[in-house]
């Protein structure tokens, strides 16, 4: 079988890194487009410096990969940031940065990879959204809006590029990653765990498994949709900040 060529943004840490590990374990050739090199060892993903907010840079990286490997089969727009603060205190420059990474970053990757997939006749565009796109979480209004935008992109692009290219999002609930560790104290983490029906945060590898499925032939009839991986949080209506 031909080796799958997979590009993941923000794979130097957290969910992206676990996803890169999952795909390399499955035999794929994985490129990690991230601002920084991975701090912890990875299972063999190839790191290329890239700022996802820079359209030209993303297009250049995808162009290099296509020249080296002939194509990109799967592109996962995962790089994202969140900033925890009240809505009335949000500063315009912070909002611009967040939206540039979380929304324009997805558009940049999906355009660059989607163009060559469409010409090649097949491919899968994936992104990391969030349960925050669906439920209202206080102190994350701009982040929540950015993830809702990702779901909207997912639906629209699915219609435009079908039947050649599929799109899908994974919407994680709470995941134990460096991003989460930065923003939550141990006490806050315990409080959140008590409200999640499964009683805990997800491990990054559990989000990676969802991406692995959505990229596979097993998911060939899934497009324009999100797969929520949240331990029952949304089903239970227990959204918590
Ligand atoms: P993380 O902070 O561990 O990793 C994010 C990675 O993105 C880092 O390696 C960082 O260097 C990279 N990055 C940031 N800005 C970039 C840019 N401009 N260009 C290229 N790379 C950039 O975060 P994580 O928790 O693994 O989150 C990954 C994704 O999952 C994000 O989109 C986040 O919104 C989403 N998410 C996280 C959780 C959670 O609980 N951790 C829940 C739902 C959704």
TrEMBL record:
<dbReference type="GO" id="GO:0016616">
    <property type="term" value="F:oxidoreductase activity, acting on the CH-OH group of donors, NAD or NADP as acceptor"/>
</dbReference>
<dbReference type="GO" id="GO:0048038">
    <property type="term" value="F:quinone binding"/>
</dbReference>
<dbReference type="InterPro" id="IPR057326">
    <property type="entry name" value="KR_dom"/>
</dbReference>
<dbReference type="InterPro" id="IPR036291">
    <property type="entry name" value="NAD(P)-bd_dom_sf"/>
</dbReference>
<dbReference type="Pfam" id="PF13561">
    <property type="entry name" value="adh_short_C2"/>
</dbReference>
<keyword id="KW-0560">Oxidoreductase</keyword>
<comment type="similarity">
    <text>Belongs to the short-chain dehydrogenases/reductases (SDR) family.</text>
</comment>
<dbReference type="InterPro" id="IPR002347">
    <property type="entry name" value="SDR_fam"/>
</dbReference>
<dbReference type="InterPro" id="IPR020904">
    <property type="entry name" value="Sc_DH/Rdtase_CS"/>
</dbReference>
<feature type="domain" description="Ketoreductase">
    <location>
        <begin position="4"/>
        <end position="174"/>
    </location>
</feature>
<protein>
    <submittedName>
        <fullName>NAD(P)-dependent dehydrogenase (Short-subunit alcohol dehydrogenase family)</fullName>
    </submittedName>
</protein>
<dbReference type="GO" id="GO:0006633">
    <property type="term" value="P:fatty acid biosynthetic process"/>
</dbReference>
């Amino acid at each position: 079988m031909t080796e799958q060529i997979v590009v993941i943004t923000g794979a130097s840490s957290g969910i992206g890194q676990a996803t890169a590990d999952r795909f390399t374990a499955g035999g794929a050739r994985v490129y990690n487009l991230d601002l920084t090199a991975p701090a912890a060892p990875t299972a063999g993903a190839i790191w290329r410096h890239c700022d996802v907010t820079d359209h030209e840079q993303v297009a250049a990286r995808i162009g290099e990969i296509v020249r080296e490997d002939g194509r990109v089969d799967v592109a996962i727009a995962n790089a994202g940031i969140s900033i925890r603060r009240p809505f009335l205190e949000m500063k315009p420059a912070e909002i611009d940065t967040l939206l540039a990474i979380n929304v324009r970053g997805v558009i940049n990757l999906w355009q660059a990879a989607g163009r060559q997939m469409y010409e090649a006749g097949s491919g899968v565009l994936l992104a990391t959204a969030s349960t925050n796109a669906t439920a209202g979480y206080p102190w994350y209004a701009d982040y929540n809006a950015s993830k809702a935008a990702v779901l909207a992109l997912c639906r629209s692009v699915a219609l435009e590029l079908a039947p050649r290219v599929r799109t899908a999002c994974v919407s994680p609930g709470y995941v134990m990653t460096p991003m989460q560790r930065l923003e939550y104290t141990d006490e806050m983490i315990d409080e959140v765990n008590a409200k999640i029906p499964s009683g805990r945060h997800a491990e990054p590898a559990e989000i990676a498994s969802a991406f692995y499925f959505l990229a596979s032939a097993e998911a060939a009839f899934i497009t324009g949709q999100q797969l929520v991986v949240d331990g029952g949080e949304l089903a239970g209506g227990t959204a918590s900040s």
